[in-house]
Sequence to fold (201 residues):
Amino acid sequence: MEAVDLALILALDGSASVTFDEFNLMANGCAAALRDPEVVAGLTGGALGASLAAVLLWSGSAAQEVMVGWTRLDSPAAMAAFAQAVEDVPRVVPAGATAIGEALAACASLLAAAPAPSRRQVIDMVGDGRSNEGIPPEAVRDRLTEAGVTINGLCVLHEEADLLATYTAEVIGGPGAFALQCQDFDGFAEAMRQKLQREIA
Fold:
């Protein structure tokens, strides 16, 4: 497969703190953001005319699963199909603890298996709680950022008001890294849209 501008992983929190209704809001919000015209143009209109994207669902230490494999985004039709796949993602991992370090390690393996080289590699960590199981996220983050990967965060604050500070200190890193927040899952779609627009700018 030909090289792409960006390889993007959407890593979605499926832990016990996320209810089924909230998970649906998260999946639908991601899909809505991926359908935004500016996001579509950004992911398909770079110098190389294409991006790669995948979706990882995670919770506890032994609960990470690739829900949408690497997909080449090189046209509005490809974007529409990927957005629909994201909207249809089922919640299949056990609703257990919050193992962010283990999720980042799974993302590292997924990036290593990408079917084409990319100019940039970005992991979107989406969650509503701090890591409470498994390897510390800082250790995995540091290995990834040393390899040039950017890890950004989207924090849902409905349970932990200081989560943005936690993500900033423990999770995000790499070139241009940032974290955004939304108060609850009702505001998730708009926050994700802003996040994707900033990542592909």
The chain has a mean pLDDT of 93. The chain has one domain: 4-200. The beta strands are 4-13, 51-58, 64-73, 118-127, 150-156, 179-182.
